[in-house]
Amino acid sequence: MKRFSITGLIIIATFCLTSNVFARGGWADMNGGTTGGAGGAVVDVNNYTDLETYAESSSTYIIRISGTIDIGSDGFDIAKNKTLIGVGTDATLSGNVGFKNRDGNIILENLHIHNPYTSDEGDGLSITQDIYNVLVTKCSVYDCEDGGLDVSNRSDFVTVSWCKFYYTPATPDPTHCFSTLVGARDSLPEDANYLRVTYHHNWWTTGVKERMPRVRYGQVHVYNNYYSDLVYGGYCIGVGCGARIRVENNYFNAVYTPWKDYYSDAPEWPVGHIGWNTGNIYYNCTQPTWATNEYATIFVPPYEYDLDDAADIPTLVQAYAGAGTPYPPHWYSGAYGDFDLSGTVDRIDLATFVDYWLETTGIEDADYYPDGIVNFRELAKLAESWLLD
């Protein structure tokens, strides 16, 4: 479902430093929702000592991160009720980003994350051991010694959205370019009641070979993602033991195989299940035939979501996925005129609109009809949303 016009060059919104509704959605909206550090103090950090202090505190914080911070092979463990958000376009965490066991309600946004350290915690992000309600959005995860982002050990209610995953030629082990894993081992069937994860509007690209994601036991929703320039011989989605995977409106661009069987070699554990709709695009590749399409019986997400046309996904995702990229215009996630994303077009929004009136620069978030000026056409659109409300 397109909410704005994509004609050649896409409308690029002004980069803003706020957690945006468009990036939410998915399983992280369940279980009471994911608000991170909302309502807590806002603090600015540019070094490991301060970052660790605030991230591991029992208090609620919005932590604004600047520059590059080396967090080491052991990293730190983020405690509940935190938002970690990068300032500008280059905020970077180098090392393992971990989470405090049995804590949750955490948002990570607009961060470059990589882990060059060889250790047991070689992942970029390790969402493991009963972690709940996590939103990872508009992050770039790259060059990790193990996986880029893993969800395991009864962790639950996770959304990964508008992120970019990649490896560079300088990666020490190019044969281990794995990306995202759900479920640690075949021998953990108790995970079947957990590991509910949504991946939407992500871009898996240069140098990635496998696990986009690989799934054991979880209920995993994979929609509106873009797969391109991957390592030949790998796979995108791994269907592991007990997996239940819903695949919708993704764009597979010349990949080796969109999904692969990872449960047949472990017959002692439950089989995996995958269901896909007709909206996926397989460009210069083939839709797999080895699996039965269980789309009619696979789980139905309990949250609301809108599917973009798969044909639009390469343009959308390449423009907006990853750290330091712009955010889509406000109407991507709702009605035109709801500038503050409150769900209502009201007097506050009207005041914002007045600031854009007849302006010709810095108007990307208001120029609904991309003609370079905010005028009566947008005013009529705002009035339409007002009346509907």
Structure description:
It is a single chain. The protein has 389 residues and is mainly β. It folds into two domains: 320 residues, Pectate Lyase C-like (3 Solenoid); 55 residues, Orthogonal Bundle (Type 1 dockerin domain). Helices cover 10% and strands 30% of the residues. It is built from four helices and 27 strands. The strands form three sheets. The chain has a 15-stranded parallel sheet that branches. Strand 1 and strand 2 form a beta hairpin. The protein starts with 5 loop residues before the first strand and ends with a helix.
In short:
With 389 residues, this protein is mostly beta strands.
Tags for this model:
389 residues; mainly beta; Pectate Lyase C-like; Type 1 dockerin domain; 15-stranded parallel beta sheet; 10-stranded parallel beta sheet; 4 helices; 10% helix; globular; disordered N terminus
Total domains: 2
Q: What is the third-level CATH name, the topology of the largest domain?
A: Pectate Lyase C-like
Helix content: 10-25%
How many beta-strand segments?
27
CATH class of the largest domain: Mainly Beta
CATH architecture of the largest domain: 3 Solenoid
Compute the average pLDDT: 91
Termini Cα gap = 21 Å
Percent of sequence in beta strands: 25-35%
- Cα-atom radius of gyration: 21 Å
Outline, from the CA principal axes?
A: globular
Uncertain runs with pLDDT below 50, 5 residues or more?
Answer: 1-19
Largest sheet: 15 strands, parallel
Find the structural class using helix and strand composition.
mainly beta
Helix segment tally: 4
The CATH superfamily name of the largest domain is Single-stranded right-handed beta-helix, Pectin lyase-like
